[in-house]
UniProtKB/TrEMBL annotation:
Residues 43-356 form the DUF1559 domain. The keyword Nucleotide-binding does not apply. Keywords: Membrane, Transmembrane, Transmembrane helix. NCBIfam families: IV_pilin_GFxxxE, pre_pil_HX9DG. The keyword Membrane applies. InterPro entries: DUF1559, N_methyl_site, Pilin-like, Pre_pil_HX9DG_C. Gene3D superfamilies: Glycoprotein, Type 4 Pilin (3.30.700.10). The lineage of its organism: Bacteria, Pseudomonadati, Planctomycetota, Planctomycetia, Pirellulales. The chain crosses the membrane at residues 21-42. This is Major pilin subunit. Coiled coil: none annotated.
Length: 375
């Protein structure tokens, strides 16, 4: 006869009670709601940090500008051009007919941005053209191995906004005369309120412009040959006294966004082209009107459409190469506006809805004697 084992009775109050399926689903739903509430806050905090880093980058560029002014009594010129008059607004390569160009503002800031290695490569390239009257840094320096193919690699983080996506595509457009140039630059010098020739008129002139010089200023022609002089022209940019509207009232730089397109010039740090390292305040920040460029991406350019951007792609553009009437708006991936660096070194945030004629354009010019109306 088998005895049943004795079972100890556990009091009901001491028994462990598990979750029911309904309770488990409720808990999961609550966690999901909390995550949904926290995620935008986390993303906003991350964007705030990226925006702050972007502003710090601009402050460093501003410090570099003022260190340059301390050394040469002037900001660097936007770019140097000693070509024939019809080419004074063009920025292509040799095959596009531009073979008498000097350097531009971003390169001239290398010694003041802790970029000694890059500056050494710039000097090597320049010295290689010392016995020639022709020069085009975008073309010459990228081509030669002894310069380390200067221009093919992206710069250090000081010229990238953390909010902008990484662009690894190189610019190559044979018809524009330039090949294998790195992209990714997100900061542009203010060219004023007009097109590529804004610098010719006080009412549209910005903090930067072309130093257009006669060949005699650049070249040293002797019976023994032609020798290059100074293709940097560091002292021929804007001096502090030239800012009759005031340094604190004039935009020196703002943001641009690079296009992930092989044939689009925007974001190419080696080029002085509109949209590459310069912008115009002709249109508002993040304008819904298309940029007009000398090199617009083949897959982005659609001349059959109007000048208005019809989609969410803010990089739609039109291509114009035979006139100076090209414009690239300040653009960023920050919500609602762009950062701007003032000529005195301060950084501000300007909204997309800023009044173009009363505020944005007056802020972009240095000598038009406008009174900026605060919103």
């Amino acid at each position: 006869m088998h005895r049943r084992p004795h079972r100890t009775q556990v009091p009901t109050a001491l028994r462990q009670r598990g979750f029911t399926l309904v309770e488990l689903l409720v808990v999961i739903a609550i966690i999901g709601v909390l995550v949904g509430l926290l995620l935008p806050a986390v993303q906003a905090a991350r964007e705030a940090a990226r925006r702050m880093q972007c502003q710090n980058n601009m402050k460093q560029l501003g410090l570099g500008m003022h260190n340059h002014m301390s050394a040469f009594n002037a900001f660097p010129p936007g770019n140097v051009n000693y070509d024939e008059s019809g080419n004074r607004f063009k920025t292509g390569g040799w095959q596009h007919g531009q073979n008498e160009l000097g350097w531009h503002w971003l390169v001239m800031l290398f010694p003041y941005m802790e970029q000694p290695a890059m500056w050494e490569r710039v000097k090597i390239c320049e010295e290689s053209r010392s016995d020639s009257h022709t020069s085009n840094p975008c073309d010459d320096c990228e081509y030669h191995e002894f310069t380390g193919h200067l221009g093919r690699e992206q710069l250090a983080s000081f010229d990238h906004c953390p909010s902008a996506p990484a662009i690894r595509t190189q610019f190559s457009d044979g018809s524009y005369g330039l090949e294998a140039l790195a992209k990714g630059n997100n900061y542009a010098a203010c060219w004023g309120s007009g097109d590529m020739l804004s610098w010719e008129k006080p009412e549209t002139r910005g903090a930067f412009g072309t130093h257009y010089a006669h060949q005699d200023q650049i070249l040293n022609i002797t019976p023994d040959g032609t020798f290059a002089g100074d293709r940097f022209q560091n002292s021929n940019g804007m001096q502090s006294r030239d800012f009759t509207d005031g340094l604190s009232n004039t935009i020196a730089m703002s943001e641009i966004i690079a296009a992930d397109s092989r044939t689009d010039i925007r974001g190419v740090w080696m080029s002085p082209a509109m949209g590459a390292t310069i912008f115009s305040a002709f249109r508002n920040p993040n304008s819904n009107e298309k940029d007009v460029l000398a090199a617009c991406g083949d897959e982005i350019n659609d001349p059959s459409t109007t000048t208005t951007i019809d989609s969410k792609d803010r990089l739609e553009c039109l291509e114009v190469r035979d006139t100076a009437e090209v414009y690239a708006a300040a653009r960023s991936y920050h919500t609602g506006g762009v950062n701007v660096l003032m000529a005195d070194g301060g950084v501000r945030f300007v909204t997309d809805s800023v009044d173009n004629l009363k505020i944005w354009q007056p802020m972009s010019t240095a000598q038009n004697n406008e009174v900026v109306v605060e919103q």
